[in-house]
Amino acid sequence: MQILSKRRQSNSPTLRSKKRIRRSYTVYFAGDLWNHKDLIGNAILAQYIEKRSKGLYRCIVPQDLEQTDNRAVAIRNQDLKQVMSCDVALFNFDGHELDSGTVVEFMFAKFLDIPSVLLRTDFRSAGDANKDGDPWNLMLASWPRAKVLKLHGMVEYQKASLAAKKNLNGTIHALYCMMADTIIENLNAVRIAPGIVADSDVLRVYQRALETPGAGFGELFTPDELAKIVEGKRAKGMF
Questions:
Q1: CA–CA distance, 98 with 118 (Å, rounded to integer)
Q2: Is the confidence at residue 227, as pLDDT, over 90?
């Protein structure tokens, strides 16, 4: 009888209601998606971020949304819609020249004051700033609520390979665990950074952003849907 009593007690509605529901945040993960290395790398990193954060961060990867047979402005609208809807953003700034679409998405995120992490694993310096500046065009430097994360891709790969005794699967696991953990740390920091838009102005900013791209973008959200997005982010403390 005592065992049955304990079971009933542990399953009581009162105790269940006290269980803490863990909040999760959606991450718009932007970057190159032009070849197998880009596509597989994005997919692996997104999966590791979700696993290593224990579901705190859930990545939205554009390559899983886009169609290959009808590349038109609808794809642009679809991606910008996800930028607007997500809580935070991760932008892969690899390459000698940054992907122009990724740059547009970053600027749109900044217009909306979305907390962002700029990730670069490319160890080449391709910027036009001073020696200690960011390794990309200086027009993309020093934006608010944006943290720069630079990881030396070759060095980190070799360290992971050595730790895994040159076992490929072990190398992949070690490398992506390190990258995911570092990204999560930066997402945590930028997510709680003070916003630059007053709480009373947020909805108006989102309404203006809805009109800015043109080409049918403003038709993707009803006023109620847009208000729901803003309220959802407000409830998570994003403003």
A1: 12
A2: yes
